[in-house]
Amino acid sequence: MYLTRKLKLGRTDQLDALARRAGDLWSTVAKWHWRFVDRQGYWLSKGQSQTMHCKGYEGLHSQSAQAVADSFYDSLQSWRKKRDSGNYEGLRPPYKQKRYFKIQWKSSAIKLRDDGVLRLSNGRGNDPALINWPSGQEPKRVEIGWDGDRYELRCQQKVEEDGEPKGSKTAGIDVGEIHLAAVYTEDESWTVNGRELRSLRRQQNRTKKKLDSKIDQKEYGSRKWKRLARAKDRQLRKTRNQIKDLLHKQSTRLLKTLHERRVGTVVVGDLTGIRESIGYGSKANQKLHQWAYGEFARMIEYKARLCGMTVERVGEAYTSQECPSCGNRHKPHGREYICGCGFEGHRDLVGAANIRQKYLGQDEPEGSPLRVAGEGPKRSVMASPTGVRYRPHMRCNPATVGKTSTEPKGSCGQAGRPVGSGQRSPQENLPALAGGEVKASET
Asked: How far apart are CA 92 and CA 82, in angstroms?
């Protein structure tokens, strides 16, 4: 598995020059590609563009120049796939010219020196970029880009999935909007509270609405218009960081709980395509479109793998409508699921139980709270789940804070501050081009 570590760098003349050279190359590749299309009806291939424009490009390493063309053609291929599928309304191919663009280095241009300095080659005759790197592991790929406020270093490192699960239990996870996750094992259940996330989303929407109304009253491009636009970007960026921090902390705490409860397999509900053709009213549609289920499920998956757990995906169709006791299906009203057979339980937990049962492909084992051997479905009430709430100042396990990798053990440590929450170890306080904060996430 590859994880991405991030380091804030600030702004320097060297980075500006490199980003400007990458932007000029992107513009050249895009301009000549569309000229061939318009005048000759011929689509240049990536290899042809790299031969024409990237070979011997001054100011960048040869593979960095090739990576710029790779980015252009990756964007073009993505647009063509959506065009062929008919789902490209409002989307346009990559055609705009760029003044600045991200710089990428592949493994042959990266070297970690013995003194802990990361050396990024910029081609013969050009000064390399030197960065104090807090990790002792040489990255496989490096990228420097603008994050809206300063330059940011993003390094991909290979991390071994060396965690050992404590047991062989199977947990079903139903990802939701009110509850970020409902988890059910054969004998326990939890819900991860999502109300703090909903509060941040409401704050984000109010801020955007308030500043948009003020911006619309100013002349486009004026000094006051630019000042308000900068304020909007700054405030929304802060809220986005808070949301990401919350998702990291909640997913870390959840995986720590599962690891302690001897879970070896995690089954996550697959919600692919849920946003297509939705029509529940403006407010409900807005909530669904802002629902961070994909990001939260991704965090659960890679942190579970770091703990040595097996991760599986199962379709969620009708899992919240089917009674786990008798198998009858009906749509519940409210948060409680009540079946005619006498079974009662939390609706999200019913979904998690059915996701787990769907993966296992068989009835619950003997001794399960939902079934009793030889008696058919058990008519009872599902036990209330244990709540997992967000606390802003969660911290990692002190034994793992000093690690400079992606803290694979921290994902299973005390309910605390996961990677990406902003806390740094002593090793991470080393100076960089402009001192920074180290973050990490899965690639």
From this structure: 10
